[in-house]
Amino acid sequence: MAVVAAVLATTALQTTTGATPANAAPPPGACHDPEPAHSPVPAQPWAQQLLAPERAWPYSRGAGVLVAVVDSGVDADHPQLNRPGKVVPGRDFYLAGALPGAFDCVSHGTGVAGIVAADPVPGIGFHGVAPDARILPVRISDRDVGDQGEALRIDPQVVANGVRYAADQGAKVINLSLAGHDDFAVIRDAVAYATARDALVVAAAGNAQKDAGTELPSFPAAYDGVLGVGAVDIDGARLSASQIGRYVDLMAPGAKVLTATRAGGHSYVDGTSFAAPFVAGTAALVRAAWPRLSAAQVAQRLLATASPARGGAGSHAYGAGIVDPYRAVTDGLDPAKPAALPGYLPRPPDQARLDRAAAERATAGTAKWLTVAAVADLVLAALVAVVVPRGRRRRWRPGWASAVPAEPVSTEPPEQIFLVSEP
Q1: Which residue of 36, 76, 409, 414 is surrounded by the most CB atoms within 10 Å?
Q2: Domain ranges within the chain, ordered by starting residue
Q3: Which residues are catalytic?
Q4: Is 14 exposed, middle or buried (0-12, 13-18, 19+ CB in 10 A)?
Q5: For residue range 50-75, what is the model confidence (pLDDT) as tens digits?
């Protein structure tokens, strides 16, 4: 049976452990080696601080949008996912039978679902992007790594069945946190089936990058209609393993991001697997705020509103930039055309005001000339006070200036003094 070459694109790094009791209840024998419980982490993660999706919540919280998490299942008992109706039963395509998908053995799918839609709760900084979105868990794997740490493979037919099921259930967003180098026709056809039903498919770009110059293939991210998502760290730099290629459409936090784990806790994880749900959650916000947009139009909106990244717009390493939930929801929020303004009607002049202004100008002019006349009278009086007494003393006889000498009086220079004797 053919298998997917690489699966569940993540290098999960758990840094917190604890002894909290397990809340999940997988069916007996369903988990090969269930991941132990983790402690809750109260700190607010850097990814939530960077994207701040709560800025968009006054306009959209993702209500009414069903997001399919095609993954390892989802622990529907997690305290941030257990609100009635948030996680629907879903389906398990990995194990035979009619099992639901609402349980998880390895926390991968629970982590993805938490980033999409975890509820905010007191005392915990972590929350999802679209807390009112509903989660459809579609279980297609048991675990993401084997006993020796190797990446496990998934039957491509199981993946395809899960994608088709999600589309048939009415999922408006389908998150595929998996990547492989091989192009399987059954998965390609299933993705086309979902996009034809107006589902926006979001896929991880993959974590197989070894250098900065080689473009590796990545499916399903490279399929038509799929948004491929790469990962950045807290500094906005591409995660070194995040793959580079034309299929990279957007970037999102994917290095040491905090997310939910099975049995009620949290852990820090790395990988494009956990960058993809930030985009899927943002797509849910947009689909709730703009219900008339098609999946293709939602994708276009996410690309157009992305924040600039280091690689520049359209680079194969960073795509259009880093997803921005607030701008994706709010840019051009009012689509109605502006109302027509009434015709301009000039107001009639206020004649009384104009008359008052003219009178004030006339008064000001009169005052100015009276001031000039008063100053002139003062100057004339001063001249009279000086001239009349002098004229009386001279009995009004004219005075003459001193006569100019006929020849200028010359002044002889002093006798020259020599400091040394003449020779």
Answers
A1: 76
A2: 46-330
A3: 71, 108, 273
A4: middle
A5: 999 999 999 999 999 999 999 999 99
